[in-house]
Specification:
By secondary structure, the chain is of the alpha+beta class. It is built from two helices and nine strands. The strands form two sheets. Strands 1, 2, 3, 4, 7, 8 and 9 form a seven-stranded mixed beta sheet that branches. Strands 5-6 form a two-stranded antiparallel ribbon.
Length: 166
């Protein structure tokens, strides 16, 4: 796939954001009552999903009958906010939590509280879009705030196809 975007999939941004938010809230490592919110964190804690570059088109071809075939990427980050009392052990736990979250999203085996989980399928998308692959980078902590609250970030990329007729 080309490394530079050639366009945007504006409608895809909404479709992918909703699908990834719903999927994130199915993660078996979430505590009871805990949820992933869209770009919203509490003052000292929370988990949020935030789109980082939109839904971008990287390849496009049109067939002779007007069918358009696009290869696209939707990049987002999961942000985990840890309270001011976070010590090294707690920071390692946050890092391990995000690592398990990333493995699960990528359909790898994630071990949570001693149990293994594997996501069986990615969600079906509407309007001719289909997820082909989800990849992740390593989670990292940002600079702590003066209060000691620290955000941890997990970058994730969804590769998908978009097919429609002109």
């Amino acid at each position: 796939m080309a490394d530079e975007a050639i366009g945007t999939d504006a409608a895809g941004y909404e479709v992918l954001t909703e699908a990834m938010l719903e999927l994130a809230n199915e993660f078996p490592g979430l505590e009871d009552g805990e949820s992933v919110k869209f770009e919203e964190l509490g003052r000292e804690s929370g988990i949020a999903l935030s789109g980082s570059s939109g839904a971008l088109v990287y390849q496009e071809r049109e067939d002779i009958i007007g069918g358009v075939h696009q290869t696209c990427r939707y990049a987002f980050v999961l942000v985990y906010r840890a309270g001011a009392s976070a010590r090294e052990g707690q920071k390692r736990a946050v890092s391990e939590f995000l690592d398990a979250f990333g493995k699960w999203l990528c359909r790898e085996t994630a071990v949570i509280d001693g149990e293994s989980y594997v996501l069986s399928a990615w969600p079906d998308l509407s309007t001719g879009r289909e997820i082909k692959r989800i990849t992740r980078e390593n989670a990292y902590g940002t600079e702590p705030q003066e209060s000691g609250v620290q955000d941890w970030v997990l970058p994730v990329t969804v590769e998908y196809t978009n097919e429609f007729s002109r």
